[in-house]
Design a protein that fits this description.
The structure is a single chain. The protein contains five helices and eight strands. The protein starts with 9 loop residues before the first helix and ends in a 12-residue tail after the last helix. It has helices at 10-52, 58-61, 156-159, 177-184, 216-253, and strands at residues 56-57, 76-83, 89-95, 101-111, 116-125, 144-151, 171-172, 192-197. A five-stranded mixed barrel has the order 2-4-5-8-6. The radius of gyration is 32 Å and the shape is elongated. The protein has two domains: 2-43 and 216-250; 55-203. With 265 residues, the chain is α/β, with parallel strands linked by helices.
Length: 265
């Protein structure tokens, strides 16, 4: 066993400890990526299912005080009523598909039974000051039928957007049906609609694109990568061990200089 005595050297003790520590760490990272892959795949499936489901009247899925669930989010809903443009607000710091910063236009939509649906009509550009209320193209006048995606109320915890106070008149940071019910003094359906039809005349406000899919295959690739790294650690350790033994054997087999003879240069 003297040939393995070098394993007790400080260099090899440290190398072995590091290798032993890396293997479970890499395996754990692989499982973490596996969970991310499963979560993202499940979300993509849920979003696709919601987007392709048959449209339903909004009041079939939501009511005043209702919290929109994961399975209800992105469902296509329809509503018939009248836009109350005098009570329109704009949602600050929202971007369009090009990354330009502007506003989302939020207008109450009065239903026939007295309830109100908050409708995000789309994106408009902001002026330099972002203090004056912007000029907003008018929606269809009178009684009309609209459709769009049902969305959950926005919160700071979910979006990371701070709900700032002291904003200019009729400007808000988050879309929240409870706060809108207090502002309007009316029963507001939980959540809100991202309008997709009818298309605004002149293309303004810009309609909000369908939610994109998360890159689940990337997490799957990372999972495989971490597990391959974990498998490579003992293989690499064994390769270094064999090389060390070979180097020692070659050094032992090399002819030794006779006493009094100069060593070969």
């Amino acid at each position: 066993m003297h040939r393995y005595r070098f394993l007790l050297s400080l260099q090899w003790v440290i190398l072995t400890i590091v290798a032993i520590a890396l293997i479970p760490t890499m395996i754990k990272l692989g499982f973490w990526q596996k969970h991310r892959y499963e979560e993202r795949t499940a979300r993509n499936d849920l979003v696709a299912s919601a987007l392709h489901a048959e449209p339903v009247p909004v009041e079939r899925l939501s009511s005043p005080g209702h919290a929109v669930t994961r399975t209800e989010k992105y469902r296509t809903v329809t509503a018939t009523g009248t836009f109350d443009t005098a009570k329109t607000e704009v949602v600050r710091r929202r971007t369009n598909d090009n990354g330009d910063v502007g506003y989302h236009v939020l207008t109450p939509f009065d239903l026939a039974d007295g309830k109100v649906l908050m409708v995000n009509r789309g994106w408009i550009a902001a002026d330099a000051s972002q203090t004056a209320f912007p000029k907003i193209p008018a929606p269809p006048a009178g009684r009309t039928t609209i459709s769009g995606r049902l969305m959950a109320d926005e919160t700071t915890a979910a979006s990371g957007i701070k709900n700032l106070k002291g904003l200019p008149d009729r400007q808000i940071m988050l879309i929240n049906s409870t706060e809108e019910a207090h502002r309007l003094g009316a029963p507001v359906l939980g959540g809100y609609m991202e309008q997709t039809a009818p298309t605004p005349k002149g293309g303004s406000p810009e309609q909000i694109s369908d939610p994109g899919t998360e890159d689940a295959p990337l997490n799957y690739a990372y999972m495989i990568q971490w597990w391959l790294f974990a498998a490579a650690v003992p293989v690499g350790w064994w390769f270094l061990l064999r090389r060390e033994i070979r180097d020692q054997e070659e050094a032992a087999a090399a002819p030794q200089p006779q006493e009094g003879e100069p060593a070969a240069v």
